[in-house]
Design goal:
It contains 9 helices and 33 strands. With 693 residues, it is an alpha+beta fold. The strands form 7 sheets. Strands 7-4-3-2-1-12-11-8 form an 8-stranded parallel beta sheet, sandwiched between helices. Strands 13, 14, 15, 16, 17, 18 and 19 form a 7-stranded antiparallel beta sheet that branches. Helix 3 packs parallel to helix 4. The protein is globular, with a radius of gyration of 29 Å. It starts with a helix and ends with a strand. The N terminus is likely disordered. Bound molecules: beta-L-fucopyranose. The site of beta-L-fucopyranose has 7 residues, from loops. Beta-L-fucopyranose (FUL) binds next to loops.
């Protein structure tokens, strides 16, 4: 009897377990590898760009730069890594070799490295210093090894692949654990190539024999993830832009073979047969390397927060770049921006108000206890709510004991068993009924949504469609502080004023009479028509919840350019120089100097001067006009010379340039470019404007 009882007890004890084994949702292939899972959980890590071209103010070294230029007198890798650590990053990827071919470690396979320079008598090894600093600060270390090498004489020949692999062996054996390797996609083109000074083309898909190169990498570093947008599918994918975002729909899947379109990179592929998640790489400044002229262009807090929501908040990771200055340090401005960004993220995601909710789900999986709704609020990423295998929709309700206030939701799928959710919505219970807050497509590892602050006693997540039964491991709700930044004000070519705020929630108030705006001023909703006159616009962003406002932003505009016309047969897209958008530009491809642009202002105006804003894109700095002439006319035949000269220091400070002259009436203006920063480049313009009486 005792034995029988014992067996029944054993049976009872074992049954739930064996049932639960049977009821575990099946993996939906493809699924991430252990290395990809470990990488995804890092979420946010740094890039550091530093090389010989830091000393020539170029984006890409040509490969012929004199190694002696490399002289980082204050080099301090511990400063770089400390900043990354304090910024909340989990690792650092460093440019061991960029396209110039110059090596920041004493590679035994080339002379083009820091072993042959006066700095520290050629005894330095920056990769070693980085690896040590990362160890000290407990950050993971990764390396960027450019497959393209503009210095190496053999680039383009099979011999170069041996060289490339030898360098890989050095980097992946001598410096401890490497979490990620970056194989940049820029491959082949003009270069020094040991003195040949020519253009060399390679076939990106075959030249590097990626399958065997990957094999070597994995043998040397079994825990590594490989980034590559140039050849065979690697572990991670480029998202098709360096602007700091991935698509709102973001599948961590791609087809294993074949050419990828921009859409595929941006959104992944719902039916992809390979797990290739997206990494969002972007720089804290416009360019990857340090350029003093960009000191005023460090990303602002709202820009960095947007980047975060559009990368980590969209099932991607964020790889944010710091450039190192020629002295070997990261600029204070970049440091401050990264630390403010960390502070704001910590504030935004400090208090999860969902933590004490009651969670109910419908439907529930047969074996409820293991896959119950409460798993989404238990702070354990390994537990999840699941429906039955054949159920692809379902809802989960979080009910609070007292009303809660929030404006962000963070949702996670249990991706170890595959990414599933195709469409979902979120709702809040307001005035006794459910109100939809948002409706979106994919979730993946992590999805964060922003919406105007609300207070409610119930929140609902509806899975509207899924590739297989949805598996939700986490839901968190936060009340992030509203970021109050002075709004941006532009005037388009129609003469309309467009004002935008940095965060989603603030309300904008503005004035056109020079008075300081308050909450009693006009409320901005759509572009404001200001006729042909010269408005002075002042605007504030106001937090509707507590009445706090930003500093005042103020912009004065000259006459409207609504009736202006570019009088040029070669004008093409020249109209962009009048659109009020500083980020759009036109390049005068007249192909010869002097190059001119002629404008009809539609009627006679009283002119006192003119303004020029060069193309704001970092790659366009050769196109910046340095020497000019300016003419006016009333009949387009007789031109009167008004001004000429040089925009001094425009290369280092490529912002608005103003030239004034004695008052004169004219209908036509002609701005002639005599010389650019880059001798052979076509002049580039973001905006041209006049100063009137
Ligand atoms: C690009 C490179 O050409 C840039 O110089 C930079 O390294 C960036 C991360 O990738 O493709």
């Amino acid at each position: 009897m005792k034995n029988l009882l014992f067996s029944i007890v054993i049976l009872l004890n074992f049954q739930p377990d064996s049932f639960s084994q049977l009821s575990i949702p099946k993996a939906l292939e493809p699924v991430p590898t252990v290395n990809q899972m470990r990488w995804q959980a890092m979420e946010y890590y740094a890039f550091i760009h530093f090389s010989i071209n830091t000393y020539t103010d170029m984006a890409w070294g040509y490969g012929n730069e004199d190694p002696k230029l490399f002289n980082p007198v204050q080099l301090d890798c511990r400063q770089w890594v400390r900043i990354c650590k304090e910024a909340g990053m989990k690792g650092v990827i460093f440019t061991a070799k960029h396209h110039s071919g110059f090596c920041l470690w004493p590679s035994q396979f080339t002379d083009y490295s820091i072993k042959n320079i006066p700095w520290r008598n050629g005894k330095a090894d920056i990769i070693r210093e980085m690896a040590d600093a990362c160890k000290e600060y407990s950050l993971k270390f990764g390396v960027y090894l450019s497959p393209w090498d503009r210095n190496h004489p053999d680039y383009g020949k099979p011999e170069y692949i041996t060289y490339f692999r030898n360098q890989l062996k050095e980097l992946l054996t001598n410096y401890g654990d490497i979490f990620e390797i970056w194989f940049d996609g820029a491959n082949g083109g003009s270069g020094y190539y040991g003195g040949a000074n020519e253009t060399r083309k390679i076939d990106r898909t075959t030249y590097y024999d990626w399958p065997n190169t990957y094999k070597l990498v994995r043998e040397l570093q079994p825990n590594i993830v490989i980034w590559n947008d140039g050849g065979d599918r690697a572990d991670l994918r480029w998202v098709g832009t360096e602007a700091g975002f991935v698509g709102e729909t973001n599948w961590s899947l791609l087809k294993a073979k074949g050419i990828l379109s921009d859409d595929m990179l941006r959104n992944g592929m719902e039916n992809g047969d390979a797990w290739v998640p997206g990494e969002v790489n972007t720089s804290i400044r416009p360019e990857w390397f340090y350029h003093k002229k960009e000191d005023q262009k460090v990303k602002t807090l709202p820009q960095l927060m947007d980047t975060y929501y559009n990368s980590v908040g969209r099932n991607g990771t964020l790889l944010l770049n710091f450039p190192t200055m020629p002295n070997g340090l990261i600029n204070k401005l970049d440091e401050m921006a990264a630390l403010d960004f960390a502070k704001e993220r910590n504030l935004a995601f400090k208090n999860n108000v969902a933590i004490n909710a009651n969670a109910h789900a419908s439907p529930v999986r047969a074996n409820d206890s293991q896959f119950a709704a409460k798993n989404v609020i238990d702070s354990d990423s390994k537990t999840y709510w699941a429906t039955n295998d054949n159920e692809k929709t379902g809802s989960i309700i979080l009910e609070f004991t007292s009303p809660q206030t929030f404006n962000r939701v963070l949702i996670q799928e249990y991706i170890s068993l595959g990414q599933r959710v195709k469409s979902f919505s979120i709702e809040a219970f307001v005035n006794n009924s459910w109100k939809e807050i948002d409706r979106q497509t994919t979730i993946g590892y992590k999805r964060i949504l922003r919406f105007p602050t609300l207070t409610t006693s119930k929140f609902r997540l509806n899975i509207l469609d899924s590739k297989s039964c949805p598996l939700i491991s986490n839901i968190e709700l936060f009340n992030a502080p509203i970021i109050l930044y002075p709004p941006s004000i532009i005037r388009n070519q129609n003469g309309d004023i467009i004002i935008s705020s940095a965060d989603v929630e603030p309300v904008i108030y503005y004035t056109l009479d020079g008075n300081i705006p308050t909450f009693k001023s006009s409320k901005y909703s759509t572009p404001v028509s200001t006729g042909l006159g010269k408005p002075m616009v002042k605007a504030i962003a106001l937090n509707p919840l507590n009445g706090k406002s930003s500093l005042v932003q103020s912009e004065s505009f000259d006459i409207s350019r609504k009736n202006w016309r570019i009088v040029h047969s070669t004008a093409g897209e020249a109209i962009k120089v009048l659109d009020g958008n500083e980020r759009s530009s036109w390049h005068n491809n007249a192909n010869k100097m002097p190059a001119e642009i002629e404008i009809d202002m539609g009627k006679t105006e009283s002119l006192k001067g003119f303004k020029y804003l060069p193309d704001q894109n970092w790659w366009a700095d050769g196109c910046i006009i340095t020497h000019f002439e300016f003419y006016i006319s009333n009949d387009q035949k007789n031109w009167k010379f008004m001004s000429s000269g040089e925009f001094s220091n425009i290369k280092n400070s490529p912002f608005w340039q103003t030239k004034t002259f004695n008052l004169i009436k004219a209908r036509y203006i002609k701005f002639i470019a005599l010389k650019n920063v880059g001798e052979t480049s076509a002049p580039g313009y973001a905006e041209i404007d006049v100063i009137t009486d």
